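TASK: fixed-backbone design
INPUT:
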């Protein structure tokens, strides 16, 4: 498992804000049908995987499902468990991580979801869409301030 550098907080950070919304998770023993149903029902692209102690042990994304589906030859794909599909080297962050740090990590590692973890337990999830929206908000705010400054 990897931990993203804990950045300094300027205002309420994106990650801190996202840690307050519901975090959907799955257990290592959940099967593919349950995983796909959760992804579809909640309109999300990845789920943190927890062991019996509720600690993060992996992540299952849409990409993991597709890659494993292509490997399956005997028609028993939907019997696979989260533990057999999950990415075990999870990149995660803490609540103080900044959106610009997340963007760099996501781009460098070609990932679209990063669990927010506290005491080995996921408390939220950051998606690439969340990061892009935050950066757009920052640019719009800066543009507004510059226009106000110029019009003085």
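OUTPUT:
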């Amino acid at each position: 498992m990897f931990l993203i550098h804990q950045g300094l907080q300027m205002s309420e950070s994106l990650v801190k804000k996202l840690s307050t919304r519901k975090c959907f998770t799955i257990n290592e023993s959940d099967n593919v049908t349950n995983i796909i149903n959760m992804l579809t029902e909640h309109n999300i692209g990845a789920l943190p995987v927890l062991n019996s102690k509720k600690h993060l042990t992996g992540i299952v994304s849409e990409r993991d499902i597709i890659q494993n589906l292509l490997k399956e030859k005997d028609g028993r794909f939907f019997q696979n468990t989260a533990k057999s599909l999950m990415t075990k080297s999870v990149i995660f962050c803490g609540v103080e991580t900044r959106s610009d740090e997340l963007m760099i990590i996501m781009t460098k590692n070609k990932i679209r979801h990063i669990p927010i973890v506290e005491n080995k337990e996921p408390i939220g999830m950051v998606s690439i869409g969340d990061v892009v929206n935050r950066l757009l908000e920052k640019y719009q705010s800066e543009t507004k301030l510059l226009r106000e400054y110029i019009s003085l």
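COMMENT: The beta strands are 2-3, 26-27, 46-50, 56-61, 91-92, 113-118, 121-127.
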